[in-house]
Amino acid sequence: MTSEPLFPLAATATTESGLIVPADTGILRVATYNIHKGVQGLGPTRRLEIHNLGLAVEQLDADIVCLQEVRKMNRREANYFENWPQVGQAEYLAPEGYEAVYRTNAFTKDGEHGNALLSRWPVRDVNHLDVSDHRFEQRGLLHAEVMFQGRSVHTVVVHLGLIAGSRVRQIQQLHQFIEREVPPGAPVVVAGDFNDWGNHIKRMLAGFGMYEYDGDSSTFTYPSRLPLAQLDHVYVRGLEPMSLQVPQGRIWWRMSDHLPLIAEFKL
């Protein structure tokens, strides 16, 4: 993967790790990415993509990166791949200078996986809510307060269920969680894999005052090889949606079954 920025922005400064800071310091850049546990393919032909994903996450150049299907550990894969990272995937994927936050959603016989948040800015008050709707799917919400340029932005990473009824109930739990944990009027970001092929969840969130940038077919994220739908979203409250983009090409669809989504907002 090229080391040149894939999404160049006008810049007046860079971080200590060399990443570009947008010229307009009031712009918050958020990315969401389902990384498919860092492995692509099945059986003996499967390949480890976590190292490429590490380069990709840095190229997203986001203030906040919301990740789903992140492995904390997996004994079977660690034994299979000689170059399996010695640390959890959230920690491994965090660019230099970023803070990594991870919480487990699912426990399996070989390990555990869940959601993660990588932040260029200080993080405080991390919470996790189990929103599993039935015994066949373990799901959770990861909440963290990110101090973006000294201002509090509450960020929730989600990975909703595959069943429509489960997603409705999980969005209701999300709404109750925000009402309980986030001060009224505080900026909120909700990002992740919503697993929704229609607009029902979008309408539900609009009823709670949560909106996203209205994109087009160029923002489809799934399946990565031939995107047909936008399953990945970034919804906000108290922020102004400015833009939405999805990287394209073979280098991206080889790394995961989802493409990353990058959104920008004005405070």
Automatic annotation (TrEMBL):
Nuclease as UniProt keyword: yes
SUPFAM superfamilies: DNase I-like (SSF56219)
Segment forming the signal sequence: none
Keyword Hydrolase belongs to the record: yes
Coiled-coil regions, chain positions: none
Key words of the record: Endonuclease, Hydrolase, Nuclease
Domain Endonuclease/exonuclease/phosphatase residue range list: 31-258
InterPro entries: Endo/exonu/phosph_ase_sf, Endo/exonuclease/phosphatase, GPI-anchor_lipid_remodeler
Name assigned to this protein: Endonuclease/exonuclease/phosphatase family protein
